[in-house]
Design a protein that fits this description.
alpha+beta; 60s Ribosomal Protein L30, Chain: A; 2-methylcitrate dehydratase PrpD; single chain; 7% strand; two-stranded antiparallel sheet; 2 domains; 4-stranded mixed beta sheet; 47% helix
Length: 469
């Protein structure tokens, strides 16, 4: 009988060495690390970010603990990771895997705190990040949409496991202990979709709490508690609880069959890297809007559009992107032509040529935060935008068709991998924003330098110094 999924994953994680990481994997982890660090600094200026930091310093301050980014101060391992996770998630610009999970706000703060407290080298930090991202992505895989349909929000559900694996790697857990860490993380994880469905904001603290839970799972695993061997695929295990069964029968999928097996979860570990499909969100909005914004920007750059002559804009997308958070529990406002919808962002770029990455996050229907350049023209045009969902179209692969008066038509299309860029492209996109970010220019430059050097750094000290007062 083959080893359990947890056993196979644990064995791979425990034996993973920095030398095993291909350059593309190292580059991707550097990219996410840079993105998360800069986003944390931006997030420190938000109400939610400040509240999380204040709470952490009031309840879990520790002079010799882990650093809280941007705000400064030190706290317990779990406290600092909680605060940093919140900062990385406060503006809704975290990285994303398959649209509905966000590894960065769970894996990175967990690993950063443990690397700092344990004196890990930069190479060890990158290796732990790769382990956490890869295991989370593989466990999530084709099961994400079915988890959403159960009423659970996929990002914290799978993020707890990523945080546990990254922390466990830095703690030096044995194979048996890593199996237990996965089992405990499977038990500790939580997060429902009622907020995204109805407009509640409790999801703002999903990832921070999942980060804390993942860290605790790894710490408790050192106590040599025996974890369930089949915690993931067992009859009453993780998949049964969060997808509805342990037979690979899916209720919803982005594309492809609704019956899968568990083989791909562990197949090709170390040779096929699922984490390479992580995308970076440059804009403070739902992930599926980001490729629409970029594609419309590309179209506007290529064509001089006379906005008054636009008759209709059609956006073909993956069907799940039009029924967020799930076809089982859709949020009706997401599919309407209202401020903060896909229609709005497409119209905004069509009118203005680009969308500001540092603009305040806008919830769908939140007119109070919507004042912007050419506001009336944007509102008028967004009612000419139509979104169409397709079951055979990949996520993050919109096609935009702009029909003009006089039968002229402009069209652009993405394949789904355009946002999977690496470190060089991330730096190109971030540098123009530096003058607008409330952080010393020399420190922002130092963050870039520290991330570039992290694979060979003796520790994460330079990065933390550049990202704290």
């Amino acid at each position: 009988m083959p080893d359990s999924l947890s056993r196979q994953l644990a064995r791979w994680v425990v034996n993973l060495d920095a030398a095993d990481l291909p350059p593309a994997v190292v580059d991707k982890m550097q990219t996410s690390l840079l993105h998360a660090t800069v986003v944390a600094i931006i997030g420190a200026g938000t109400h939610h970010g400040k509240a999380a930091v204040d709470l952490t310093l009031a309840e879990e301050s520790a002079p010799h603990g882990a650093a809280i980014l941007a705000a400064g101060g030190h706290a317990t391992r779990c406290g600092a990771a909680f605060a940093n996770s919140k900062l990385m998630h406060a503006t809704n610009q975290a990285d994303s895997y398959r649209m509905l999970t966000h590894p960065g706000p769970c894996v990175i703060p967990a690993a950063l705190a443990s690397a700092q407290l344990g004196g890990a080298t930069g190479a060890q930090l990158i290796t732990a990040l790769a382990a956490g991202y890869e295991v989370e992505s593989r466990i999530a895989g084709d099961f994400i949409a079915s988890t959403q349909a159960r009423g659970f929000r996929s990002s914290p559900i799978y993020g707890t496991l990523g945080a546990a694996v990254a922390t466990g790697k830095l703690l030096g857990l044995t194979e048996d202990q890593m199996v237990t860490a996965i089992a405990l993380a499977s038990t500790f994880t939580a997060g429902t979709n009622e907020g995204p469905r109805s407009g509640g904001r409790e999801m703002m603290f999903h990832e921070p709490q999942s980060t804390r839970s993942g860290i605790m799972a790894a710490l408790l695993a050192r106590e040599d508690v025996r974890g369930s061997e089949e915690a993931l695929e067992g009859p009453a295990g993780f998949y049964n609880a969060f997808t509805g069964n342990n037979r690979g029968e899916l209720s919803y999928v982005f594309t492809g069959p609704q019956q899968v097996d568990f083989g791909p979860v562990t197949a090709g570990l170390g040779s096929r890297w699922e984490l390479l499909h992580t995308v970076l969100k440059m804009y403070p909005t739902a992930g599926y809007n980001c490729p629409v914004i970029d594609l419309m920007t590309d179209i506007r750059r290529s064509h001089q559009l006379a906005v008054a002559e636009i008759e209709r804009i059609t956006i073909d997308m993956n069907w799940l992107e039009t029924l967020y958070p799930s076809p089982a529990f859709p949020n009706p406002s997401r599919g309407q032509a209202i401020v903060g919808s896909t229609h709005y962002f497409a119209a905004y770029v069509a009118v203005n040529g680009a969308y500001p990455p540092l603009r305040t996050h806008i919830d769908p229907g939140d007119d109070s935060a919507a004042a912007a350049e050419n506001h009336d023209a944007v509102l008028s045009l967004m009612h000419k935008v139509q979104t169409v969902g397709h079951k055979d179209r990949p996520a993050f692969a919109p096609r935009i068709t702009i029909e003009m008066t006089g039968e002229t038509t402009y069209q652009g299309e993405y394949q789904g991998n355009e946002l999977e860029w690496g470190l060089d492209e991330e730096i190109v996109r971030l540098r123009p924003l530096f003058p607008q970010i409330r952080w010393p220019a020399e420190k922002l430059t130092a963050i870039v330098a520290a991330v570039r050097a992290i694979p060979g750094a003796p520790d994460a000290g330079d990065l933390i110094a550049a990202a704290t007062p």
